[in-house]
Amino acid sequence: MSLLQIAWRNFRYRKVSSLLTTFSLALGVALVVLVLAIYGIITDAFRGNSAVSYNLVVGPKGDPLQLTLNSVYYLSQPIQNLPYTDLMEFFSAKQRAEAVRLYGGSQALGEKGGKYSRFVADGVVIPLALGDYVDQYRIVGTTPDFFEKLQHGPEVDKPFTFRDGRNFQIFSEENGYFEAVLGSRVAANLKMKVGDIFYPTHGDPEGKGHRDAFRVVGVLDPTGTPNDRAAFVNLEGFYLMEGHANPVDKYPEDMVDGEAPSGVDPDGNEIRPLSIPEREVTAILVRSGGLWGAQLMNMINEGKDAQAAAPVGEIHKLLSQIVGPLLTALIVITLITCVVAAMSILVGIYNSMNDRRRDIAVMRALGARRDAVTAIILLESLLIAIIGSIAGWLLAHAAIWIASPFIEDHTGVWAGFFKVSKYEFLVLPLVLLLAMLAGLLPATVAYRTDVSRNLAA
Amino acid sequence: MLEIRELKKSFEQPGGGRLPILDIETLSLAAGEQTVLIGQSGGGKTTLLHLIAGLLTPDSGSIKIGGTDITRLSESGRDRFRAAMTGYVFQTFNLLPGFTALENVRLGMSFASGKHQPERALALLDRVGLAERAHYRPGQLSVGQQQRVAIARSLASRPKLLLADEPTANVDPASSQTVINLIRDTCGEDNITLLLVTHSMELASQFDRVERLETINRLYVAPGTGDAAARI
């Protein structure tokens, strides 16, 4: 028989004690794995989704982290709004003239390019308007470009695809300005499908309901990003909802009317898109062309009204300043838990040493060397550690798997049974090391066992 | 096969000082010889067996087994020597309770390097009439059967010297003779030198050679004729 077989026999012979010790260790390991998995989910949720296909988020002056959280993750409250003219600073002269022609506004706006337009000539500029909800989910007013020009995924190379339907249009004959696309989780949880309508509520999930209904024309495939938990509506429709027009005291003297097609409100009245002075945006997603990002960011931040934040940098700061210390705390808890779990091995084996002394003496009498009986005890400790670690890992991942719909719903992070945090790979070696240390004391007792005395006892 | 010369052993006393136990001028056993050692309870018989097995070290003197003076070996050297050369049958059998009869026998050969032979373990159990109980645990065997398993285990590593410490003390009288016959027969068949300790005169009378510890141990003082404290 090998030493491992002998150790396994000992484990099985004292099965109640061994299993209780193993179970105790498994609970400890499960706790550690859960803690690490939760940390992994948190960091994945932020770090993974900070890889977006734009490099700047522009919004009103305030906390750049808050701006990032509400415009990238749809968390926290929007700071304030920016006038639409700030968005037009990213437009070329031609785009500005087209905006004035369609929506109406100061004719002078269309006569020159925006001051940031040269930075985004080959880039992307997408406005966001936030503040409304459907059920508990954020409504994001934006343009069709959101799904046509942005990508997602770890390498930011996956285009948005539709499980059902299509992208919304700025204006369609059948739905006017009121088309919407739902994130996969929103559609699943609200049991909504293409063709359904919904009435946004204002300000918060329990806020006052708008009278204007949006018709769902598309449902996105899951992306594993916060976009799964948002309902995207046409920005023009968003503007046309009651109370969304920015009150204008005095229109510009060179104001021209817009030529965009008219729609109808819930009362059947003809409505036209808001004019430029009535429009606001909550944030602007910007992908600058070339290597202009830093310069553009500085220029915007030097202005008095708007700020530009780099989502990756903000999330890095969040992770290092908040989640970093949290990780340290978690690691300390993990270490303590591992030590407590290892102590259970020590106590379990040590308590059985009185019964084992005779067995050890017999083995020594049969020719086992001191190091062999020591190794048997250490192997038994390792067996408990390995079985306990595997059981604990399975226990934790079963719990994560059971909770995965809830986790995905709330974080957008998929947490399947086999999704393993890199930190988990440290648990097994750590537990094995601690188990070896825990086994040292009883192993020393085994090493020092007085053979003659214990045989004669 | 076994040569003991000027062997002395004492134990430390709890109150200080040392209590001498053994002082043997000489004891020799030829290869294949079967010898019974008798003596009073607490007389040092088990201590002598433990010294021969290398489980204890003497204060002085030599113990040569097959020409090797085990008192000159390191502890691990004695362990290896014991695993290869010496079999031991205990008074209380000392089978490991968590192991089956077969595993207990295999354990006997596990610690002698290169001697993992399950078929030999089964053959030994067959030899002691317990092949059909190979997968029974000690608790599922009778006392006599347990001692037979212990005998099979002691022979597992093909020892040249078998030390049996009162092997029938815990066996019922009916099984006692079976156990003795088994030990003597197997030792005779394999030319194993046997040193069997007992305090039973009836059992001792079956052996050609009987040694009395009181005779070979120079520390022995007959009751009422000397200092009791110095006695064993």
Write the layout of secondary structure elements.
The complex is a heterodimer of chains A (457) and B (232).
Chain A lengths: L2 H11 L1 H35 L6 E5 L3 H9 L9 E2 H5 L4 H11 E3 L17 E11 L2 E6 L2 H5 L1 E2 L5 E2 L2 E4 L13 E4 L1 H6 L7 E2 L2 E2 L11 E7 L9 E5 H6 L14 E3 L5 E2 L5 E2 L8 E2 L1 E5 L5 H10 L3 E4 L1 H41 L1 H13 L4 H42 L15 H22 L2 H6 L1
Parallel strand pairs in A: 5-13, 9-12
Antiparallel strand pairs in A: 1-18, 1-19, 2-17, 3-14, 4-5, 4-11, 4-18, 6-7, 8-12, 9-13, 10-12, 15-16
Helix pairs in contact in A: 1-2, 1-12, 2-10, 2-12, 3-10, 10-12, 10-13, 12-13
Chain B lengths: L1 E11 L5 E12 L4 E5 L6 H9 L6 E6 L2 E2 L5 H11 E4 L11 H10 L7 H10 L15 H13 L5 E5 L7 H18 L2 E6 L2 H4 L4 E4 H4 L16
Helix pairs in contact in B: 3-4, 3-5, 4-5, 5-6
Characteristic terms for this protein:
heterodimer, A: 457 residues, alpha+beta, eleven-stranded mixed sheet, two-stranded antiparallel ribbon, 19 strands, elongated, B: 232 residues, alpha/beta, four-stranded antiparallel sheet, 24% strand
- Silhouette of chain B: globular
Shape of chain A: elongated
What is the mean pLDDT of chain B? 84
User: Largest inter-chain interface?
Assistant: A-B, 26 and 30 residues
Beta content of chain B comes to 15-25%
Give structural notes.
The complex is a heterodimer of chains A (457) and B (232). Chain A has 457 residues and is an alpha+beta fold. Helices cover 49% and strands 16% of the residues of chain A. Chain A has 14 helices and 19 strands. In chain A, strands 1, 4, 5, 8, 9, 10, 11, 12, 13, 18 and 19 form an eleven-stranded mixed β-sheet that branches. In chain A, strands 2-17 form a two-stranded antiparallel sheet. In chain A, helix 1 crosses helix 2, helix 1 crosses helix 12 and helix 2 packs antiparallel against helix 10. Chain A starts with a helix and ends with a helix. Chain B is an alpha/beta fold and 232 residues long. Helix content of chain B is 34%, strand content 24%. In chain B, the strands form two sheets. Chain B has a five-stranded parallel β-sheet with strand order 6-7-8-3-9, with helices on both faces. Chain B has a four-stranded antiparallel β-sheet with strand order 2-1-4-5, covered by helices on one side. Chains A and B meet through helix 1, helix 11, helix 12 and helix 14 of A and helix 1, helix 2 and helix 3 of B.
